[in-house]
Amino acid sequence: MTLDRPVRIIGAPSDYGANRRGVDMGPSAIRYAGLAEELEAMGLETTDEDDLPIPRAETRDPDVEQLRSGNAKFLRETREVCEALEARVADAIEAGMFPLVLGGDHSIAIGSLNGAGKNADVGAIWFDAHGDFNTPETSPSGNVHGMPLAAALGRGAFAEEPWASENRLREENVVYVGLRSVDDHERDAINASEMTAFTMSDIDERGIGPVVEDALDAATAGVDGIHVSFDMDWLDPNEAPGVGTPVRGGSSYREAHSALELVAERHASEGVLRSMELVEVNPILDSHNQTADLAVELAASALGKRIL
Ligand SMILES: NC(=[NH2+])NCCC[C@H](N)C(=O)O
Ligand SMILES: [Mn+2]
Ligand SMILES: [Mn+2]
How is the cofactor bound (predicted)? Predict the structure, then answer.
């Protein structure tokens, strides 16, 4: 049941897209929590590349770049990071490996999605408290980690090259699971889009199993594979305190394992997984590396670890 290909860990310690420092230490914290050791213990061949080289934010000018009418901080830097990440993800897939990307804030998903969707039609499952579907025109914060899905789908100011580059991410195969914090403009944009959105209320009513099965059906229909984007703030802050934008009422520890076990099972039967990322771990805000430990456990479940 474990994943059918070697794993390549790719660290993307960017915090250009977040309001708070600290997520740049996410890859270190997740490695320290024993990610590679855990995957190897599962029998997975695992390589761990050097992190992407990312200059510290203090050495750069946030330069609220006026892209059309909007605002977004560190856009130029974010674009550089995401172009480099796109190449790494695409290379890993081409080499027959499974890219497991460690953030960093969620803006790095632009690179992951562009890489995963480079030569294939792809869907995505977005486990997140947030919609991350703002554009520079609608963002209340100017933080690009609230915009990666809009960027990868070429919305608003991101219609300009090379944000969505040539990715073949299909909007109708993008699926949210567990949304609970959405800005007003974002709500309108999500409702008007072709994406599918399951909120925490859907999980309350139906249970995690049926929701994730439906999400997998919608994400995988007619595509070559899917990218799983996992924002640690999807979990309740009691479980995952080490995140920059915590929101009450998130998924439980068991729901998170269960969701990712279902992803692994679908992969075992249909070979759907193409790439995954774990983002928004902020060790400064964490308690004894609890959130990074949890990220390791959840990666293992997604890649096929079982209790028995
Ligand atoms: N990846 C995240 N943690 N995103 C939080 C986004 C928060 C808010 N919606 C914003 O756009 O600023
Ligand atoms: Mn997010
Ligand atoms: Mn989030």
Answer: Binds 2 manganese ions per subunit.
- Residue 1, in any domain of the structure: no
Question: What pLDDT does 165 receive?
Answer: 72
Which ranges of the chain have pLDDT less than 50? none
Q: Which domain holds residue 88?
A: 7-302
Active site (catalytic) residues: 106, 128, 130, 132, 145, 231, 233, 280
Mutate to test the pocket of ligand 1, among 245, 247, 280, 282 (most ligand atoms within 8 A of CB): 245
pLDDT attached to residue 66:
63
Does the annotation flag 132 for ligand binding?
Answer: yes
Residue 296 belongs to domain with CATH number:
3.40.800.10
Evaluate whether residue 219 is within a structural domain.
Answer: yes
Strand ordering across the sheet containing 225-231: 46-48, 7-12, 98-103, 273-279, 225-231, 122-127, 169-179, 196-199
Domain total of the chain: 1
Quick one: which ligand is closest to 23's CA?
1
Q: What is the ipTM of this complex?
A: 0.97
Given this model, what pLDDT does residue 269 score? Answer: 97
Is 63 annotated as belonging to a binding site? no
For a mutational test of ligand 1's pocket, the pick from 71, 107, 141, i.e. the residue with the most ligand atoms closer than 8 A to its C-beta, is 141
Question: By alpha-carbon position, which residue is closest to atom 7 of ligand 1?
Answer: 146
Ligand-binding site membership of 257 (annotated): no
